[in-house]
Design brief:
Blueprint (H helix, E strand, L loop, with lengths): L1 H16 L13 H7 L3 H12 L8 H6 L15 H10 L3 E3 L5 E3 L11 H24 L5 H13 L7 E3 L5 E3 L3
Parallel strand pairs: 1-3
Antiparallel strand pairs: 1-2, 3-4
Helix pairs in contact: 6-7
Length: about 180
């Protein structure tokens, strides 16, 4: 009986020494669990950014010609003078001869291509040269008003504008030069 009491006492005291391990609950899933659950936040953000940034659609040279756009030549403007480039801009209606004698950028009417930064710089350079010419002409003939010199120069110059070039009429409308 003594043995039985000792065993009973040991059995009653033993649960006090032996305990179950502590269980730690995590309120957030691990990265692997997030991926397995379908959380792809970084990829979703990249897709959203890509959707906001439009990219050009590639066209073949034949598709560009059907749209009326000449493909860029393989060799850029080699052998073309500034006058040739200006005639091309006048013919494509990207630039027009204004009734005041200056060149005007007419992007709205531009056909077959766009104006490059070099084209805009060329137009500005030509306009600056024309104004300097008119000032010089006025110093040579001060008795003639600058406006009259400018008008006479413009009449003489208009005869040399390329056929089909964009010119401004006296009433302010734009049209092609007839030859």
């Amino acid at each position: 009986m003594k043995l039985r009491g000792l065993l009973l006492l040991t059995a009653l005291c033993a649960p006090g020494c032996i305990r179950a391990p502590e269980i730690v609950m995590v309120d957030r899933a691990t990265a692997l669990e997030e991926q397995a659950a379908g959380s792809f936040q970084e990829m979703e953000q990249r897709l959203a950014r890509a959707g906001m940034n439009p990219t050009p659609v590639p066209f073949t040279p034949n598709q560009l010609e059907e749209l009326g756009i000449q493909p860029t030549p393989l060799v850029e403007n080699i052998g073309k003078t500034q006058a040739d480039r200006l005639d091309d801009l006048l013919w494509r209606h990207c630039v027009g001869e204004g009734k005041d004698g200056l060149l005007a950028v007419t992007r709205r009417d531009c056909r077959a291509g766009r104006l490059s930064v070099d084209d805009v710089a060329l137009v500005e350079r030509v306009n600056r040269s024309r104004m300097q010419l008119w000032q010089w002409m006025h110093t040579v003939r001060p008795e003639v008003p600058e406006e009259a010199l400018r008008r006479n120069w413009h009449q003489a110059h208009a005869a040399g504008v390329i056929c089909g070039g964009w010119v401004e009429a006296a009433d302010g409308t734009w049209g092609e030069k007839k030859c």
